[in-house]
Design a protein that fits this description.
This protein is α/β, with parallel strands linked by helices. The protein has helices spanning about 30-35, 50-60, 135-145, 165-180, 195-200, 215-220, 265-275, 295-300; strands spanning about 10, 25, 45-50, 70-75, 80-85, 90-95, 105-110, 115-120, 145-150, 185, 210, 240, 250, 280, 335-340, 345, 355, 360. It has three domains: about 10-160 and about 260-310, Metallo-beta-lactamase, Chain A, CATH 3.60.15; about 165-255, no CATH class; about 320-370, no CATH class. It starts with 8 loop residues before the first strand and ends in a 14-residue tail after the last strand. The model is unreliable at about 315-345 (pLDDT under 50).
């Protein structure tokens, strides 16, 4: 998608036509295979981190694309940098990772002199936002507020399903025992690295997962720490691949893994509650022709300055009063009693004028008396 105010900036979309002033920011590679099904003759300058650049460069080279590492502008994670637009304006940008592998980034844009964030962009699931809370630079950037928060709302209205990775690993192991053979899990080349990494770290599948072919090369672009995968002394029970190179083996359904790169409603709530933006907007995905669904009401409530009345929500009159019923009164307290206080205010002419009394309510504690008859 393009930013309306800054059309030179494109987010997770590789244009088919080369534009010298275009600046493409790559925050994730989920669905990238579909995007570059038809390769452009020349690639625009792409801003991303080294791991994602390596992944994309290797994939495009296998397809004989006209690309080199000079087409990438490599930036460091959580390190601000400046960009200059064709009209001379300057913006400050920062890419931050939402998980330990760095496969899902978030884009933060603000004016060069600082101030409130102009845009905060997050297109995929951010599984570990807590790792950013210890980053002082990130905290400073979001502390001044956010004008527009761009989110992927594809699964915003779907019910939240908690994912227990140990439970998923146990189901995979049981499936392997029932079939009596090694199983194959076919996943897309991009986007599912975090899921595979989490499954390999479970107690059940530790040392039993083997990465195959191009998926292994793709995974090693993110991290060289493969100690959780197949190792000597462990039986290989699951093979992870992105092709159909194992036709005679059982394929475990991808849908049973439950996790997807599309952010769930809890992840959306986490970002909205953390940032409290002025505006929330859905991301216009690839091939969507500018169509984006409305923002759910449960997310609008986290907008800064949100008022239920301004959104046409009626508030019951009972919620606007502070009266309490006998059923909700704590032990030892009676009903709230009204005490009238009539203050007199002296106007400028020195005369006292009485006004209508102000009514305050406060609980009054009962005094319990122990009678001699009660002791018998």
């Amino acid at each position: 998608m393009r930013l309306k105010e800054y059309p030179e900036i494109m987010l997770d979309t590789i244009p088919k036509l080369y534009e010298i002033h275009s600046k493409v920011f790559i925050t994730n590679l989920y669905g990238m295979e579909e995007q570059v099904e038809r390769l452009p003759k020349r690639f625009c300058k792409m801003y991303t981190t080294q791991p994602l650049a390596n992944q994309l460069w290797i994939y495009l080279n296998r397809r004989n694309a006209n690309i080199s590492m000079q087409d990438f502008h490599i930036v460091e994670e959580s390190q601000p940098f400046a960009i200059r637009l064709s009209d001379g304006k300057r913006l400050e940008v920062m890419l931050c990772a939402g998980n330990e592998l760095g496969s899902s980034l978030m884009l933060l844009i603000r004016r060069q002199h600082g101030g409130r964030l102009l845009y905060y962009y997050s297109a995929v699931q951010q599984d570990d936002l807590s790792r950013l809370m210890g980053n002082e630079t990130y905290q400073k950037w979001i502390s001044l507020g956010t004008e527009v928060l761009f989110l992927n709302l594809q699964a915003a209205n779907q019910p939240f399903v908690h994912i227990d990775f140990e439970g998923v690993a146990a189901e995979i192991s049981k499936y392997c025992k029932d079939t009596g053979n090694e199983d194959v899990i076919k996943v897309p080349l991009f986007g599912y690295e975090y899921l595979v990494h989490r499954l390999a770290k479970t107690f059940t599948l530790f040392g039993h997962i083997e990465l195959q072919d191009s998926f292994m090369c793709n995974f090693c672009c993110l991290t060289l720490d493969t100690r959780y995968f197949h190792r000597p002394g462990y039986t290989c029970t699951v093979k992870i691949c992105n092709t159909n190179n194992f036709p005679g083996m059982e394929h475990y359904p991808l849908s049973k893994l439950k996790w997807t790169p599309v952010p769930n409603r809890i992840n959306l709530i986490q970002l909205c509650s953390l940032l409290r933006p002025l505006h929330i907007s859905g991301i216009v995905g690839y091939h969507e022709m500018g169509n984006v669904g409305p923002v759910p009401a449960y997310l609008k409530r986290f907008k800064k300055g949100y008022s239920p009345k301004s959104h046409g929500i009626e508030i019951p009159e009972t919620q606007l009063t502070h009266e309490h019923s006998n059923d909700n009164a704590p032990a030892g307290y009676s009903n709230t009693q009204s005490e009238k206080i009539s203050p007199a205010k002296s106007p400028k002419d020195g005369t006292n004028s009485r006004r209508d009394p102000f009514v305050f309510t406060k609980p009054r504690k009962l005094a319990f008396v122990e009678y001699e008859d009660d002791r018998d």
